[in-house]
Write a structure and sequence with these properties.
The complex is a heterodimer of chains A (about 140) and B (about 100). Chain A has seven helices and no strands. Chain A has about 140 residues and is mainly α. With about 100 residues, chain B is mostly helical. The chains are: A mainly alpha (about 140), B mainly alpha (about 100). Chain B: This is Complex 1 LYR protein domain-containing protein.
Chain lengths: ~140, ~100
Amino acid sequence: MASVSANFVCSRTSVRLPNQLWQMITSKSLRLATVGWGRTPGFPRLSSSRFQISCAAKKETVDKVCEIVRKQLALPADKEITPQTTFTDLGADSLDTVEIVMGLEEEFDITVQEDNQDNISCIQEAADLIEQLVANKS
Amino acid sequence: MGASTKPRLSGMQLQVLALYRGFLRAARMKSPEERSRIEALVSQEFRRNSSQVDRKNYLYIEYLVRRGKKQLDQLKSPETVGLASLNVEASQAKTS
């Protein structure tokens, strides 16, 4: 289609040629450019990978966290734990939360700083923090 | 003491939690059976205080935190091998 219109434009006067052709070229080339960028290890790839790391923790990390939480709080096996469950939903008070974080520290061999500890309220947050600390450590 | 909603734990609550954390970290350095004994004792003590002590009784809470810190320092020393506690039941009628 582009080639047809380009031919059409070519028949016009040379003054108008650059504008319309330029628009067509840019509209086509923009699409081409995005595909091209995606192939090279350039910006979109980098930002998307970074976005993934900060967005969600790995499944097995979340599962391990769930296991530890279950063990610490002595939950019955049928109790449902989703990554969004907060510790207080499971009946934990702040002392229990400290215990859970200590258990996680031991399991993953990390050290959680004081100010980070107070921000953890649900399982997803804990898993994210763990991922971040493990990534920083290695 | 339990700040069940996540926003803002008070400074005193944060101190208590930091103390609890300190105890758990110190307990890791002892032998395994001593460690479980320390953890059981400390968590029992903290929970009992959290339910029995009035939240507004700042003076008593500060005293407990100070005492806890001293006990923690003693526990941290490598010469200390364990922690034990003695429960004394004081009968109310005997006090003046």
